[in-house]
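Database export, one record per block. Field names are fixed; values are copied verbatim from the stored entry.
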Amino acid sequence: MLLLAAALVAAAPFKVTLTAPTHTPKATARWVYSVRATDAKGRLVKGQITVQIVDPFGGAHPVQFGRTTRNIVNFPFRGTFRDFVQWPAESRGFKLTFRVTVKSGGKAVRTNYWIKPR
């Protein structure tokens, strides 16, 4: 099983890194996150980003860009993307998955980050 995981990592066309301050953000406050996509040599990768929240029942919901009503779905970016999420008060105590998918050069890389608003 470990060899399979290592083979999948080696086969990834580029690396996606999601950075956030905590797994337990305060509800209604801004939770800032950053996504960085790099190739094997560390150069930034140009592509499209999709950001979703997966609820405990498996439903995927698009995340809106900043204070706009525009969803982050196939949103063009150049290697680095920063934004924020304000978790609603109703989300307190639920374990959610913050999912980021980056597409570039016909390939896609997905990363997940668990969240439990307080």
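Remark 1: The two ends are 35 Å apart (CA to CA).
Remark 2: The first strand starts at residue 15 and ends at 19.
End of record.
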